[in-house]
Design brief:
Length: 140
């Protein structure tokens, strides 16, 4: 099987086009462009483009309530660029929604380690701690 040809316009332009579609809530079209970019691998030295594409495609899946698929993309984005805090935050949100508070808190703490100014992560961590305590108090 031959690799897909390089996306027309390059990775930066393709990523920008996909992000514009996502912002316009044209999810299917945005997902297609992200998938093309991911399949191509974004090119040498373009880990941030690839990680961003994976994270953003994960967000589309999250919006569709496809949590397992979203977490796969977020995890792949983290593996691609471990210093990129956003996919940790997004994966933490999914884990939180699934009631996996310990795992969510781990991701939120990693976000704050990478970016102490990430206020939403700090708030999400506090909420996960409170919800975990409430769950333990109720005994389930």
């Amino acid at each position: 099987m031959e690799p897909e040809p390089e996306p027309a316009g390059g990775a930066t332009e393709l990523l920008a086009a996909a992000q514009a579609l996502l912002a316009g809530r044209r999810l299917a079209e945005a997902e297609e462009l992200y998938s093309r970019l991911i399949a191509h691998g974004a090119g040498p030295g373009a880990d941030h483009h690839l990680a961003t594409a994976l994270n953003d495609r994960g967000h589309i899946k999250y919006l569709r309530v496809e949590f397992a698929a979203a977490m796969e993309d977020y995890t792949a984005a983290i593996q691609c660029q471990p210093s990129f805090e956003v996919p940790y935050y997004n994966r933490g949100l999914v884990l939180y929604r699934l009631g996996c508070f310990d795992e969510a808190m781990k991701d939120f703490r990693k976000v704050l380690e990478l970016n102490p100014q990430f206020e939403d992560a700090a708030l999400s961590l506090k909420q996960a701690i409170l919800d975990k305590e409430e769950k333990q108090t109720r005994g389930y």
